[in-house]
Amino acid sequence: MCEVNSYCSVVDFVLYIMNNYITQCGGNTVGGVGCSMAEGPSAMKAAIEKSHEMGKDLVEAIKKKRKYPEQDVVHEA
């Protein structure tokens, strides 16, 4: 994932901001997926496929009550 002081794509930067906001508000994130329309139809297809896989991971995270220690640190601050 993109960090504020490193090079990243615009999509990665937006995902970073959104995930950071969710974490700061007390939520947990399992990652992110996106694409730029400028990348073309194949990028959109790949992003859709990745989103389906991430959805399955999200379901598993909820079922197993998966812990995210690095995010818990932020919640406790």
Can you characterise this structure?
It is flat, with a radius of gyration of 14 Å. About 60% of the residues lie in helices and about 0% in strands. The protein contains three helices and no strands. The mean pLDDT is about 90. It has about 80 residues and is mainly alpha-helical. It starts with 9 loop residues before the first helix and ends with a helix. The chain has one domain.
The chain-level mean pLDDT equals 90
Catalogue the unreliable spans: none
Tell me about the largest β-sheet: none
Total separate domains: 1
Distance between the termini: 22 Å
**Helix/strand class:** mainly alpha
Number of strands: 0
The helix count comes to 3
Portion of residues within helices: 55-70%
| Radius of gyration, CA atoms, in whole angstroms | 14 Å
Q: What shape does the CA trace take?
A: flat
Order of helices and strands: HHH
- Beta percentage is under 5%
What secondary-structure arrangement, pairings included, does this model have?
Blueprint: H1 10-24, H2 41-63, H3 69-76
How would you summarize this macromolecular structure in one to three sentences?
The protein is 60% helix and 0% strand. The chain has 77 residues and is mainly α. The model has no long low-confidence stretch (mean pLDDT 90).
